């Protein structure tokens, strides 16, 4: 009897311990499931390929790109979706499990929504061996627009639509400093960088002096409009289309806004420093008495009726 009782007691204790262990495992598993669910909800990992991962109020939201092409790199992903390949550094920090130099097809890359410039899928012809060749122009000056960039580099402002298609990550109506504009080589007419002078014409602050005489000097123009003749070289750099050593009438000398001191017109010779003591200059009277007409002038002005009759 006692032996049976001891066996039953041992079985009960073992069952109690086993039940406790099972309950504990179930609790741990439940907590793990809850944690995993929270992570999935935060990152929205169960939705479609191109999607936003919703965050709580005040937290960053994320866009998730799923790689499709074997040549994708973090720099290409950053360039396409954020407009700046330099943002690859931020994406690498957010995606430590992804190899940045060559991302495996099917990998998910998390991108902060605050960095996005487009949600369009990364196209097949953008990266790697399939990527088209482009000339890249970086927006630098106030006054730049897609039509101006098209006009300068392709020879026609009408090509702005083609540039817009080549740069779907950009808003063609809101080009801003730092944007990189890809220009297909098939459209390219010049590789000369768009000068500030050209872009400045489309701003309210644009100012240019028009040369009036052959003997005008760039240093004289610099002295008057910028306050310092030493700014001659800066004006020469701002006007690459002009010969700084030989200005000709009709040349427009652009004065950058950060150098401009006055907009008052002046005869630049008046700005030259005097090398000798100045002397009074005789003023021409407003009107001078007319001299007597010669006989020839009399004929031209009044005709033969004035000749005395014989």
Give an account of the 3D structure.
The protein contains nine helices and seven strands; from the N terminus they run αββααββααβαβααβα. The chain is α+β, with helices and mostly antiparallel strands and 310 residues long. The chain has a three-stranded antiparallel sheet with strand order 1-2-3. α2 packs across α3 (88-94) and α4 crosses α5 (160-166). The longest helix has 42 residues, at 2-43. It is elongated, with a radius of gyration of 39 Å.
Helices and strands, with pairings:
Blueprint: H1 2-43, E1 51-53, E2 62-66, H2 74-82, H3 88-94, E3 108-112, E4 134-138, H4 146-154, H5 160-166, E5 180-184, H6 196-200, E6 208-210, H7 218-226, H8 232-238, E7 252-254, H9 295-302
Antiparallel strand pairs: 1-2, 2-3, 4-5, 6-7
Helix pairs in contact: 2-3, 4-5, 7-8
């Amino acid at each position: 009897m006692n032996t049976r009782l001891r066996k039953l007691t041992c079985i009960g204790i073992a069952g109690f311990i086993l039940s406790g262990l099972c309950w504990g495992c179930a609790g741990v598993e439940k907590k793990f499931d809850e944690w995993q669910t929270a992570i999935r909800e935060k990152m929205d990992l169960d939705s479609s390929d191109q999607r936003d991962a919703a965050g709580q109020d005040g937290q960053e939201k994320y866009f998730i790109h799923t790689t499709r092409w074997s040549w994708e790199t973090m720099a290409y992903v950053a360039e396409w979706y954020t407009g700046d390949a330099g943002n690859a550094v931020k994406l690498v920090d957010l995606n430590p499990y992804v190899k940045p130099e060559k991302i495996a097809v099917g990998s998910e890359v998390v991108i902060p929504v605050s960095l996005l410039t487009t949600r369009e899928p990364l196209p097949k012809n953008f990266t790697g061996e399939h990527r088209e060749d482009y000339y890249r122009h970086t927006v630098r000056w106030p006054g730049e627009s897609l039509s101006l960039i098209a006009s300068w580099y392709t020879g026609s402002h009408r090509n702005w639509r083609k540039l817009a298609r080549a740069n779907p990550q950009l808003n063609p109506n809101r080009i801003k400093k730092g944007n990189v504009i890809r220009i297909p080589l098939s459209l390219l007419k010049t590789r000369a960088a768009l000068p500030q002078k050209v872009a400045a014409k489309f701003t309210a602050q644009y100012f240019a002096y028009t040369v009036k005489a052959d003997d005008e000097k760039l240093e004289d123009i610099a002295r008057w409009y910028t306050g310092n003749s030493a700014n001659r070289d800066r004006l020469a750099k701002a006007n690459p289309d002009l010969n700084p050593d030989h200005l000709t009438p009709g040349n427009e000398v652009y004065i950058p806004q950060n150098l401009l001191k006055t907009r008052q017109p002046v005869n630049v010779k008046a700005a030259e420093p005097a090398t000798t003591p100045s002397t009074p200059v005789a003023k021409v009277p407003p009107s001078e008495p007319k001299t007597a007409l010669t006989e020839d002038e009399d004929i031209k002005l009044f005709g033969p009726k004035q000749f005395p009759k014989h």
